Amino acid sequence: MKRWEGRVALVTGASSGIGAAVAERLFAAGMKVVVTGRREERLAAMVEGRDGLAVAGDLRDEAFIDELFRQTRARHGGVDVLVNAAGLGHDAPLLGGSTAAWREMLEVNVLALCVCTREAVADMRRRGDDGHVVHISSMAGHRVPGGSGVYSATKFAVRSLTEGLRQELRALDSGCRVTAISPGIVATEFHARLLGDAEEAQRHYERSGALAAEDVAESVIHVLAAPPTAEIHDVLMRPTRQTS
Q: What CATH number does residue 20 fall under?
């Protein structure tokens, strides 16, 4: 990680869960970290006393993304590492879900990821052309758990976008790299929101031996620390006890 010391990382979805754990790990690695999410107080506490920047807002709003990158460029000159950790799921199956729930998953999990990636890679190309984009995806992008067809569709899209970006970067002879990390069950706020029941979510995590958010953050460090000639493109990780 020495090559990343003093350089700039942007982490979306950083106010909780995997995004928060990744941001903390990147701070510890000596990076300047820009954090974004919807909960302003959590973000402000995360960067207090550190070489970071907190910008709160809704990634469904492209004008907010433009402002996020404007502030990042004004403060730090641009982005060297982007970790797209923002994501959400709803209990909204294809035959019974609401259009609003589908739209929110598509806008956050897919469209916002695309816009942030486009803007970050433009910075990386300008700043030495050796940046790294990391998408925090899901095992749901590799198989379809029951009732999650629309959510899984967003994560299958991330698989396509990861490979599509790799191909575009290679066509440009770019030194930038891209990785998708697809965790299985992780003990975050995700299932409490999905199930609408924090106690049931906790029982679910205990039954599955869920990963910790910090486990996923360590995988982010692993791919960033690979030599520039190696691209760790697709990481699948599950709790040891998870069966699917």
A: 3.40.50.720
pLDDT tens series, the chain, 244 aa: 999 999 999 999 999 999 999 999 999 999 999 999 999 999 999 999 999 999 999 999 999 999 999 999 999 999 999 999 999 999 899 999 999 999 999 999 999 999 999 999 999 999 999 999 999 999 999 999 988 999 999 999 999 999 999 999 999 999 999 999 999 999 887 777 776 777 777 887 888 889 999 999 999 999 999 998 999 999 999 999 888 8
Structural domain harbouring 198:
2-237
Instruction: With respect to residue 50, please indicate whether it lies within any of the assigned structural domains.
Output: yes
Position 45 in a domain: yes
The tokens describing 210, both together, are 């869920």
Catalytic residues: 151
